[in-house]
Input
Amino acid sequence: MKFVEALVIAIRSLSANKLRSSLTMLGVIIGVGAVITLMSVGRGAQAEITSRFEEMGTNLLTIIGARGIPNSLTMGDAEALANSNLVPSVAKVAPQSQDSREVIAGSESITTTINGVTPDYQQVRNYTVASGLFISDKNMTERDMVAVLGSNAAEDLFGSGNPVGRVVKIEGRLFTVVGVLEAKGGAFMGRGIDDMLMMPITTFQSRLFPRRTATGEAMVQTINVQVASPELTDKAIQEIKAVLRERHRLLASDEDDFIISSQEEIISTVSEVTGIFTIVLGAIASISLLVSSIGIMNIMLVSVTERTREIGIRKAVGAKRRDILIQFMSEATMLSLTGGGIGIVGGWFLSSLISRLDIGGQTLQTLVSPDIIILAVSVSIIIGLASGIYPAMRAARLNPIDALHYG
Output
């Protein structure tokens, strides 16, 4: 029996039991659709988070205090790292301190992160000012009571009006808004960035949160470092370690009291975590595919039983075991592939619909990549073959004389 003839007979057989065939395919449709939808959500999350980090540049280093020694960094450390004679591979240095406080503007208030930063922070972290100005050297020197708002913070406090020149209150002190950052957006990282408030780090340290070491130096929580070029990242890390270990008077046997993280390391770690997350989502959705394969096998076994006499007649007129095997394998594969095709279209449509949903002012990015489609098609084929092989072998092994006497 030719393969094309087997397909024609398979279509006729499945068409004769439309309701049963449709219900059998439903499991595959739901399973494949769920796999595509959930994996596209995971891939979208991975792409969204990675893009946020990449926007800051791959030549960014972040220095924080080691676990158990969170207050080991100072303004003096940042100034030393900005010295091109000590650390020639570094282009810019931006120390940062932060705390969470209530910010009040008239009758409106929000609780958000207050960041004390320097003018170089804007370039190091790749932020764009939408209106007004960023913190200036003059603001730093004079410890001005000025603030730059994230886009969400500006909207929450002042609505659609321009907040530049208006006043906010923090810890009973009045700060003049001099600028608003361009919205970063994104459901995973953008919200925190868009909600923050920034002020000169000198104002932060002297007027709101005066934190000093035992030697009287002003403490910082983070030092952001922009390397001259991505190729110099490893060299810059070694130079930074040497300077900080000397400043902190660490012996050769002492462990570092600071942690240096490169942007590439962070991106790699995030990609690994979100990759696992995507696999887990796909595995959960695949459970329904397992159930659907059992359903197809069950229906095919029922079909073999119902068509025992038909199988006997075909064998009696010359059909070989291989012909019967191909016949029932074709039917099982067609059920699976048809359901898989509908599931792919449905999953793609659902993924597109999810990416358009507005959730609390944010959208959830989805990404249907070619490998997901290839995976879905492959799984459909495997399900068809795996669930059809036993019923097909059972049908092929039937004795034609016994089959003709069946029923």
